[in-house]
Amino acid sequence: xxxxxxxxxxxxxxxxxxxxxxxxxxxxxxxxxxxxxxxxxxxxxxxxxxxxxxxxxxxxxxxxxxxxxxxxxxxxxxxxxxxxxxxxxxxxxxxxxxxxxxxxxxxxxxxxxxxxxxxxxxxxxxxxxxxxxxxxxxxxxxxxxxxxxxxxxxxxxxxxxxxx
Length: 164
Prior knowledge:
Blueprint: E1 5-9, E2 12-16, H1 18-30, E3 33-34, H2 35-46, H3 50-62, E4 66-72, E5 78-84, H4 86-94, H5 114-133, H6 149-163
Antiparallel strand pairs: 1-2, 3-5, 4-5
């Protein structure tokens, strides 16, 4: 397998590396992450400089791989958020990172729950990086793929108790 894959769109080309696929998957899994979280992830995992992160996100936005938008949460806090776009999902499918996805493109969170929404992503990214530094990997479960996970697990345990 090649070190890089090239994707051509009407307005340019994207060279997608393994670290790009890893970042796209992270964004896809978590629906929306802040630009600061992307910057932190790429700095800690790959030593990528701030200017290179911004250049990459700008190029990806132009090619509709991702979209970056300003989100105004509670108390008028503004965050720049990155979400996967259709071309980004297509790249992940073509590269075999995910299966053909019907995973919906989502809107930004409700301002009332934004603190929780972005904080959970911060915890996941920092945990992922700790595993990464030690040579390990893990994948978090996307909430839209397992919407009733807790309910299903509890039900399975109850069923198991009945048969025991």
